[in-house]
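Hi R.,

As promised on Friday, here is the backbone we talked about, encoded as structure tokens. Could you run it through your design pipeline when you get a chance and send me back a sequence?
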């Protein structure tokens, strides 16, 4: 009797307390796994670039700046005083193909951010299934084995992975940064489109001016050829001047045709920018542009960050890349996944909702990275490289923005001086032509003198038309370089520039 109650004397410890030994096995396994997880280390992985400080880029001596000057208006092209240009830009901004593509990229990035946000939240799915199962008789003897059984199954599947280390939130914030960069790119596309319309319109204005001068030159050459023919027919001169004059007429006609073709091509270009066919360009009349006098604010370069869409987009990509590093770092740490499946299963549909039909499975699962062939380190290295690339692109965009402002401002100053010199030369040529006309009327000169004096005047008209177009284009370039009237507010929950996390 006693032997049956005390058990075998060879194994007193095992028989007395078997539960603690079994409970210790998972704990030991978990501890060993955590020790092995230390093999996946982030040691030695860190980005190598840092965003540039805008105020460290010396620009005050080059840009100067006016204390009372402001950034361009959102409709900066109205400063040129041409209602037709205002209407063309408004028409282009209503929905040109380039803007449709930019807006689609914004929606694409926003949808990607929505997917990253959804990955952070619990999921619950349902399913209904009618299954058939046949167990081989080699595994289970009849009547269970060899018999095909059918049963309806209703299931609810719950899954949730708690964000213990902030990796999921970092991935979501990276997607949000990418979406905001796409939004800034879309705004940049609008500024670029408006500037392209203005550029083509300015070129059309110049082409019209060149066509007008070319027509006057053809008329002048035709008059010279007529006079040369009269002199040759009268025996006052040989045919050499006549042949030379006829060659000049043909060259002038070619220049006139080229100028007319340029007008047509620019009308087609503007119509394409509007997203319309070439017939739309036929309705565009000759431009009536006025010179604008843009000024540079004295708050550059730091204030330029909030107005240049490309710089803002580059800044958000740095932010997104920094959060990408945080997400990659979180993957090195243990993860917990909660899952549960609850359902109903029964051999017959009528028994499906009975108390005996309940089916349940679930529980927490701990995941630890141990040996992955270097995948985690490679992923983190790629995230660090992405950050370095984003920083390099940001620094390049910032330096490029300042260069564009400086180029446009210096071009404006230089072209103003060139226009003044060219206008003085043109005024002198006009006075010389007036003198030749006066001498002809007084009988002291002839028609040849008048035509000879007209030639430098026409050449200076061409030069002035080209300089005026360059001056107008420099004003467009400056407005665009200053941001085109855009203004971006920093999100108070995110720093303007993200520094990479320390290793």
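Update: got your reply. Pasting your designed sequence below so it's all in one thread:
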């Amino acid at each position: 009797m006693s032997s049956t109650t005390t058990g075998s004397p060879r194994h007193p410890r095992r028989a007395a307390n078997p539960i603690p030994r079994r409970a210790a096995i998972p704990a030991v396994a978990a501890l060993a796994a955590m020790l092995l997880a230390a093999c996946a280390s982030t040691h030695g992985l860190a980005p190598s670039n840092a965003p540039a400080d805008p105020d460290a880029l010396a620009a005050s001596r080059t840009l100067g700046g006016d204390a009372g000057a402001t950034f361009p208006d959102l409709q900066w092209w109205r400063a040129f005083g041409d209602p037709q240009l205002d209407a063309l830009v408004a028409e282009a901004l209503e929905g040109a193909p380039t803007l449709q593509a930019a807006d689609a990229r914004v929606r694409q990035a926003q949808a990607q951010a929505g997917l990253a946000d959804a990955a952070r939240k619990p999921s619950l799915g349902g399913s209904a299934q009618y299954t058939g199962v046949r167990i081989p008789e080699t595994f289970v003897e009849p009547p269970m084995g060899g018999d095909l059984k059918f049963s309806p199954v209703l299931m609810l599947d719950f899954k949730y992975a708690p964000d213990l280390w902030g990796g999921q939130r970092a991935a979501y914030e990276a997607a949000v940064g990418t979406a905001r960069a796409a939004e800034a790119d879309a705004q940049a596309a609008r500024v670029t489109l408006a500037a392209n319309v203005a550029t083509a319109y300015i070129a059309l204005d110049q082409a019209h001016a060149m066509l007008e001068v070319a027509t006057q030159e053809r008329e002048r050459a035709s008059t010279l050829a007529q006079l040369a023919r009269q002199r040759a027919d009268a025996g006052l001169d040989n045919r050499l001047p006549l042949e030379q004059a006829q060659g000049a007429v043909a060259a002038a006609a070619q220049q006139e045709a080229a100028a007319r073709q340029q007008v047509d091509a620019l009308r087609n270009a503007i119509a394409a920018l509007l997203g319309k066919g070439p017939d739309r360009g036929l309705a565009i009349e000759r431009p009536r542009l006025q010179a604008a006098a843009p000024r540079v604010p004295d708050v550059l370069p730091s204030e330029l960050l909030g107005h240049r869409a490309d710089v803002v987009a580059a800044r958000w990509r740095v932010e997104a890349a920094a959060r990408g590093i945080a997400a990659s770092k979180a993957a090195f740490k243990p993860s917990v996944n909660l899952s549960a499946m609850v359902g109903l299963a029964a051999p017959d549909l009528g028994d499906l909702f009975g108390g005996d039909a309940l089916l349940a499975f679930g529980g927490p699962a701990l995941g630890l990275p141990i040996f992955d062939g270097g995948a985690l380190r490679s992923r983190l290295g790629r995230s660090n490289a992405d950050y370095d690339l984003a920083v390099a692109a940001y620094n390049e965009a910032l330096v490029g923005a300042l260069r564009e402002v400086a180029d446009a401002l210096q071009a404006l100053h230089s072209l103003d001086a060139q226009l003044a010199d060219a206008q003085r030369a043109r005024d002198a040529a006009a006075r010389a032509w007036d003198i030749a006309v006066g001498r002809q009327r007084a009988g002291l000169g002839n028609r040849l003198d008048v035509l000879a004096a007209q030639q430098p005047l026409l050449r200076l008209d061409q030069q002035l038309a080209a300089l005026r177009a360059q001056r107008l284009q420099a004003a467009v370039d400056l407005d665009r370089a200053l941001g085109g009237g855009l203004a971006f507010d920093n999100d108070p929950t995110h720093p303007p520039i993200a520094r990479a996390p320390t290793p």
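One thing I noticed while checking it: The beta strands are 123-134, 148-160, 335-345, 358-367.

Thanks again,
M.
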